[in-house]
Amino acid sequence: RQCGGDGCGGTCGICPSGETCLNGRCGCGVECCARRHNIVNCQCVDKGPVTLSVLPSIASHAPGSTFTAAVHLDMVRDSHLPPSASVGLVFDSAVLEALSFQVPTSLNSILWERVLPGKVEIVTTAGANPWNALNQSADIITVRFKVIGGRGSSTILEFVASETRVLSLSECDQFAENIVDRINGAAILVS
Predict the structure, then answer these.
(1) How confident is the model over 52-56, as a mean pLDDT?
(2) CA–CA separation, 149 and 146 (whole Å)
(3) Residue 74: which of 116, 163, 124, 136 has the closest Cα?
(4) DSSP readout, 124-187?
(5) Which residues contact 103 (CB under 8 A, 6 or more apart)?
(6) Contacts of 78 (CB under 8 A, 6+ apart)
(7) CA-CA-CA-CA torsion for 14, 19, 21, 23, nearest 10 degrees?
(8) Any idea what DSSP says for residue 15?
(9) Residues near 8 by Cβ (< 8 Å), separated by ≥ 6?
(10) If exposure means fewest CB atoms within 10 Å of the residue's CB, which of 35, 39, 112, 132 is most exposed?
(11) pLDDT confidence band for 113 (50 / 70 / 90)
């Protein structure tokens, strides 16, 4: 026994600061931390927000050209292990036309997709084994667009908040909890 009572009224030892005696062994008393935190030296330490962004955040394209925009998930490694993501992006259909999309990460199974004028909706997953979840920042979806607007037109690629979710597998999160803290769109200019 490392710590706690010795059964005869004495003690086997005292745990270092921040640790707790559990069944005669010193250990971390913290089993779970709130979202955006890691356990470091038995304390919950903030590791920053989980963010979805459209990249590049500002771009200029000629009429008739095509370009690719990425939906980038930014998170600290060993974060809350997203096994699936749902993304809704809207834009001005007089300026852009969505042509196609890809899912370049381990979230490579597409559960549902819909491309409408001015809107793209995609739900992706890591597949049959949800433990194949993301554990670091990655582009989770790329969308190919064609510029159909004239010079001087512009649009914002923005997330539909109610349709944009990244779900977590962490035992510290609620089942299917949306762990996105921030969403950042992009400005597209036609030049």
Answers:
(1) 96
(2) 9
(3) 136
(4) EE--S-TTS---S-EEEEEEEEEE-SPTT-EEEEEE-GGG-EEE---TTSPTT-B---EEE-EE
(5) 109, 110, 122, 124, 140, 141
(6) 38, 135
(7) -140
(8) P
(9) none
(10) 112
(11) very high
Cα–Cα distance measured from residue 85 to residue 133, given in angstroms and rounded to the nearest whole number = 10
Surface-to-core class of residue 23, CB atoms within 10 Å of its CB (0-12 exposed, 13-18 middle, 19+ buried):
exposed
Amino acid 41 reads: N
d(C-alpha 145, C-alpha 68), whole Å = 6
> What's the whole-number mean pLDDT along residues 114-132?
86
- Residue at 111: amino acid letter: L
Going by C-alpha positions, the residue among 173, 153, 176, 142 that lies closest to residue 92 is 153
Residue with tokens 């980038």: 72
Q: At 48, is the secondary structure helix, strand, or coil?
A: coil
pLDDT at position 4: 81
d(CA 163, CA 174): 19
